[in-house]
């Protein structure tokens, strides 16, 4: 398992040069310094979502280095290979969410424009969205290759547009907003975590079956 996680980490490091990594750190600092709390809130959302597309990059890297040609003969259970990728992708999102949360808390303590609770809540929302996107993307990528990313992106876009339409144009939107306003934020986060955990388990089962059928 450690070897599989190291392989994925090395694939990502090979994709991003040292200059690229330093540039990312520089941009994070610039956004934090000049945009202050609004900037870190933006990073808390866009960071996890941006990294959520990592399964596609890993799939392309596997194809480029010939992993897919030899994986069928390796004495490694397919379940472990799939599990390692889930762990790696989700861990990466957790890592960037932790970094952006630290930046958010720092700017909240310094500038005090928004409450600390808002920063933490938005960081959790960004994290959950990122994980949800990953667990939707992985089965699609295993089943359809890079085209799976396009399928998920279209479905997510349609879903977002549908939700926005319902919130703006129907009475369901007002009822939903009222319900959200009257519901405990902590309970909403817990319920969301449970839902995503269930979806993640189903996603991994599907991915394992697809991957096992592809590389027998």
What can be said about the biggest beta sheet?
none
Low-confidence stretches: none
Which structural category fits the helices and strands? mainly alpha
Count of individual helical segments? 9
Shape, principal axes of CA atoms: globular
Mean pLDDT: 83
Helix content: over 70%
What is the CA-based Rg, rounded?
A: 19 Å
Euclidean distance between termini CA atoms:
19 Å
**What's the β-strand tally?**
0
String of helices and strands:
HHHHHHHHH
What does this structure look like?
The chain has helices at 2-15, 18-51, 54-64, 67-70, 78-111, 116-144, 147-169, 171-182, 185-214. The protein is built from 9 helices and no strands. By secondary structure, the protein is mainly α. The model has no long low-confidence stretch (mean pLDDT 83). Keywords: Membrane, Transmembrane, Transmembrane helix.
Key terms:
about 220 residues; mainly alpha; globular
List the helices and strands and how they pair.
Blueprint (H helix, E strand, L loop, with lengths): L1 H14 L2 H34 L2 H11 L2 H4 L7 H34 L4 H29 L2 H23 L1 H12 L2 H30 L2
Helix pairs in contact: 1-3, 1-5, 2-5, 2-6, 3-6, 5-6, 5-9, 6-7, 6-9, 7-8
Protein name: ABC-2 transporter permease
InterPro entries: ABC2_memb-like
Keywords: Membrane, Transmembrane, Transmembrane helix
């Amino acid at each position: 398992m450690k070897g599989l996680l190291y392989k994925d980490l090395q694939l990502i490091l090979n994709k991003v040069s040292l200059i690229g990594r330093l540039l990312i750190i520089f941009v994070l600092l610039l956004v934090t310094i000049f945009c202050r709390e609004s900037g870190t809130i933006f990073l808390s959302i866009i960071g996890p979502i941006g990294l959520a597309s990592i399964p596609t990059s890993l799939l392309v890297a596997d194809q480029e280095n010939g992993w897919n040609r030899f994986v069928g003969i390796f004495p490694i259970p397919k379940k472990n290979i799939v599990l390692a990728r889930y762990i790696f992708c989700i861990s990466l999102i957790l890592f960037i969410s932790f970094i952006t949360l630290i930046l958010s808390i720092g700017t909240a303590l310094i500038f005090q424009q928004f409450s600390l609770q808002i920063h933490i809540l938005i960081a959790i929302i960004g994290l959950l969205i990122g994980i949800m996107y990953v667990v939707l993307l992985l089965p699609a990528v295993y089943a359809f290759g890079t085209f799976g990313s396009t399928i998920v992106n279209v479905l997510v876009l349609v879903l977002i547009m549908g939700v926005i339409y319902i919130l703006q144009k129907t009475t369901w939107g007002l009822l939903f907003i009222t319900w959200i306003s009257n519901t405990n934020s902590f309970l909403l986060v817990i319920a969301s975590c449970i839902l995503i955990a269930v979806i993640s388990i189903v996603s991994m089962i599907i991915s394992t079956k697809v991957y096992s059928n592809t590389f027998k």
